[in-house]
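Recap from last week: sequence in, structure out.
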Amino acid sequence: MKTLIVYFSREGTVKAIAEGIGAELKGSTELTVARIEPVRVRGYWGWLCRSFVPRYRVSIRPTVTDLNSYDVICLGFPKWTYACPPVNQYLLEMKNCEGKDFALFMCHRGFDQERYFESMVKQVSEKGGRIVAALDAKQSAVLDDSYRESLKAFCDRIKRSLEPIEDV
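Predicted structure tokens:
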């Protein structure tokens, strides 16, 4: 079984979650970790302005976008306002998503995260992906490491999705 952990992290908290997922899943699956990196790095205000436009996209550097050889894709992103432009571009570039299991993880500061997460679920579903696990982590909980129990439960759901289905 193969799992891809792919994420965008501007400040490092989504990266910390990705590393935690990798540590929890190590030994359960063959892991590949990839970053979503914008071609042009912008400062806070540049990203903030672009994040007000739903599904706004920016160019990203080449990364793993062909998902054909993966059983589970763990996709991580920050919650900004209405868009995370590098992740929106990644979603557009993803190939061979139909029937794939996705585990979405998001880091936020605590504003309107439910609606944002639902929009990300919708975008993955539109590409044919199926959500098997979700992690909604507040930035402060990641920084003080109090989200570990939620991270473990998230990874347990991923591990269950990797288990072979037995014939009856």
